[in-house]
Write a structure and sequence with these properties.
By secondary structure, the protein is mainly β. The protein contains three helices and twelve strands. A hairpin with a 3-residue loop joins strand 6 (144-158) and strand 7 (162-168). Mean pLDDT is 78; it is low at 5-27 and 250-279.
Length: 279
């Protein structure tokens, strides 16, 4: 596996250790009340130095990526989530960093795949999910180099005001945004829009979404690791769009309205109603 991925994982591990004491305060965000499905896609670019078994060289890659996820509740508080992403890139520039006598041609593509599954719990002011993730990359000899990781999301706060979150191996993670292996940030949710801002090892990211119609949301996310400047040749940049459909949104809204009406307009007691029927 190339040194770009290993470096991102090392940065994530260091960041995780430094922030471990804060993790009880932070998560990815409140789970949906019923269930939701998301599909997305986008592109980006990244740079890495790889030596492997051969001479060291720098690769600059332009990548295209797609992403999908599904999450929902089982019962009142238990949550389940699965997600996957794949990125396929073209090596736009290959720069040898040391002399070599090899006649082997450099690779012209770079592929990264990510998948994760988590189970957790979600309450009014706090939620968590824990599971496993796998980052896999095909090698030139036809084998697949795969690294397993724990996958963790934590959040706490008042979603319609502000909440904090802390993620480890929560996607989409592909080549252009491998630095988002660890995220620490803040978010806000509203009936019509939501947004997040977060820090990553050596970079940052932004994410937002707006409700188009009942149940259907349009979102966009961007991340950057500004090595040599935000738009430097070796900076990692990614931009992705997504569509999310939240099942049961109309039903939930009516149910909440009904519960609120019952709370503010309680029915008379059974004894009183029976008493009123008597002459």
């Amino acid at each position: 596996m190339n040194d770009h991925i290993r470096a991102g994982v090392r940065r994530g591990a260091i960041y995780l250790a430094a922030l471990f004491g804060l993790s009880v305060l932070c998560g990815s965000g409140p789970a949906p009340e019923v269930a939701e499905v998301t599909v997305g896609g986008g592109g980006g670019r990244y740079s890495f130095v790889s030596s492997g078994c051969g001479p060291a060289a720098r690769y600059r890659v332009t990548e295209r990526a797609v992403y999908g996820s599904a999450q929902g509740r089982i019962g009142e508080h238990m949550t389940v989530a699965i997600e996957g992403a794949t990125g396929n890139g073209d090596v736009r520039e290959y720069i040898p960093l040391e002399e070599t006598s090899s006649d082997a041609s450099p690779p012209n593509t770079a592929t990264a795949n990510f998948t994760a599954a988590r189970l957790g719990g979600d309450w009014e002011r706090f939620g968590f999910a824990l599971g496993a993730a796998l980052y896999a990359q095909p090698e030139r000899d036809g084998t697949i180099d795969a690294l397993p990781f724990p996958s963790l999301t934590l959040w706490a706060g008042a979603p319609q005001k502000a909440y904090g979150f802390f993620d480890v191996a929560s996607g989409p993670i592909v080549g252009a945004n491998v630095n988002t292996f660890v995220k620490l940030g803040v978010g806000h949710q509203h009936d019509r829009y939501e947004g997040q801002a977060y820090l990553t090892p050596g970079g940052f990211g932004l994410s937002g979404a707006k409700r188009l119609v009942e149940g259907l949301w349009l979102g966009v996310s961007a991340s950057a690791r500004p090595e040599g400047g935000l738009f430097g040749q070796d900076a990692d940049l990614q931009l992705m769009g997504r569509l999310t459909y939240r099942f049961g949104a109309t039903r939930r809204k009516r149910s909440d309205t009904s519960r609120e009406w019952q709370r503010t307009n309680p029915l008379p007691s059974v004894d009183r109603r029976i008493g009123n029927r008597r002459p």
